[in-house]
Amino acid sequence: MEEFLNHLGEHFRLPLDNPVLIFSLILFIILLAPILLSKIRVPGIIGLILSGIIIGPHGLQLLEEGLFVQVFSTIGLLYIMFIAGLELDINEFRAYRNKSLLFGLLTFSIPLIVGFPVCHYILGYGVDASFLTASMFSTHTLVTYPIVSRIGVSKNQAVAITVGELY
Predict the structure, then answer these.
(1) Helix intervals (H) in the chain
(2) Of 77, 85, 113, 116, which is most buried, counting CB atoms within 10 Å of its CB?
């Protein structure tokens, strides 16, 4: 029995390196996080993002950055894009096409133009790191749209124009 427990304990060392345990943990979180957070009226996508931060290499370090984490991160990003695409009203986008393009250009370029000098000159990041960090500020809509949609303001003209920048 002691040998069995020692063998079992080897599989549960942190960070997890057993692919079955990693996959099980991620599936458990995908199932549980949205259900728990729906009880307190928080969109499920927020729960998934927070859970990823908590269990990841910069949180509790249950998972280290590796193939599984990269694959599931990419799948999560594609999922967010898919949900945003499903909820996009093409007719409304066509009606506000010019406004959407202008607003999209501004909401992308302003954070990029402001973020790059802040990261490069004030925070002391290199050129590549500054550009990538500023780009993250510029692509905010992809994460915020599912949240805005969930609370019911996605039919607002300003929101429709903002989301139109992606498509």
Answers:
(1) 2-11, 19-39, 44-55, 67-86, 90-95, 97-117, 127-138, 141-150, 157-164
(2) 116
Q: What is the DSSP letter of 152?
A: T
Extract the tokens encoding 13.
Answer: 């060392």
Q: Which residue is listed with tokens 């729960």?
A: 47
**The two three-digit tokens of residue 45, written as one number:** 């996508």
Mind listing the pLDDT tens digit for each residue in 17-70?
Answer: 777 888 888 888 888 888 888 888 777 777 777 888 888 777 888 887 777 778
Hey, what are 139's tokens? 């692509």
- CA distances to 77, 106, 116, 120, 157 from 109, in Å: 22, 5, 11, 16, 21
pLDDT digits 0-9 by tens, 110-156: 888 888 999 899 989 999 988 888 888 776 655 555 555 666 655 65
Token couple for 79: 């999922």
Predicted TM-score (pTM) of the model is 0.51
Distance, in Å, from the CA atom of 156 to the CA atom of 167, rounded to the nearest integer, reads 17
Structure tokens at 91: 């007719």
